[in-house]
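Why do we care about 3D structure at all? Because function follows from shape, and shape follows, mostly, from sequence. That is the central idea of this module. The next example makes it concrete: a single protein chain, its amino acid sequence, and then its structure expressed as tokens.
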Amino acid sequence: MSKDFLNQAEDNRTEIVFCVKFNRKIFADQRLKDFLREAFIEIEREFGKTPEGVNFFIEDVEIFSNYVRMVVCYNPLFGVHNAVRKIKRQSAKKLKDFDPSLMSRLPAIWTNQTKFKTIGVMSTEKEIEDYIEAQTV
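And the structure:
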């Protein structure tokens, strides 16, 4: 689905993958997985759409036990890095507020790295597995 960002009819869709710190499988708990899905919707509503226009919107989200894979469509002037920074920072804050035990188990919810890939070519499962394995260090 394409959005018209500032009269630019481009399809700025990017596949994003980011992992839980230390590859912990915290989203094996369905309660946290459901909460995170709702948090992403709330973050998109709060930060993605401003009175000046649309900065980003989340097109698709898949939450696995230790990582998140999503497709984000973003305003080229806002940038995909800004969108991901907002998504990761706000979701970590909301998760820690929802489940305070996460604060003692994980110093930070997400790793510092994020895997980006333009939508023209989706990542293979092998590429994602290699990326997640690299995050264990």
